Amino acid sequence: MNLTKTNLTKVPLDDSLLEAVELAQRLQKEARRRQLQYIGKLLRGIDVEPIREALDKIENKHNQQQAILQKLEILRDELIEQGDTALTDLLNDYPAADRQQLRNLIRMAQKEKAQNKPLKAYREIYQVLKDLILSD
Which residues does UniProt call coiled coil (predicted)? Predict the structure, then answer.
């Protein structure tokens, strides 16, 4: 029910079922409950395994993306805490990374943290890491 239009098009639904799901997304409370019962009735008449597989694939992709983003946050924190040691490890794994840019951002983030300033460099490091790692 909480699928975006893009993800909904990836699920193999016939026209009547797709229409019913889209309508259910717009309805509220009791009308939505009745519409969900109608969708259940439609689903009883078809093979739901392809639908289930498509939904699992969408959910799995979302979970993988969340895991990658969490790893990026951990990596950013390690870079700020450990400095050049963590940067050297990162450069061994990703030789295309810009050493000077990352080193400057790390130093700026350390200064911002020490002076309790807004964490602009902290966010920039995350974006640089995201671009670097997701582009591979």
Answer: 55-82
Sequence-distant (6+) residues with CB within 8 A of 34 are none
Alpha carbon 119 to its chain's center: 22
CB count in 10 Å sphere of residue 105: 24
| Nearest-angstrom CA–CA distance, 26 and 32 | 8
Token digits for 128?
């640089």
The pTM of this model reads 0.60
Q: How confident is the model at residue 136 (pLDDT cuts 50, 70, 90)?
A: low
The structural domains of the chain, ordered by start, are 5-46 (no CATH), 63-135 (1.10.60.30)
Tokens of 103: 């080193």
Helix axes 49-82, 120-135, angle to 10 degrees: 130
What pLDDT digit, counting tens, does each position of 28-80 carry?
899 989 988 988 888 888 888 888 888 888 888 888 888 888 999 999 999 98
**Contact at 8 Å (CB) between 113 and 119?**
yes
- How far is the first Cα of the chain from the last one, in angstroms, to the nearest whole number? 33
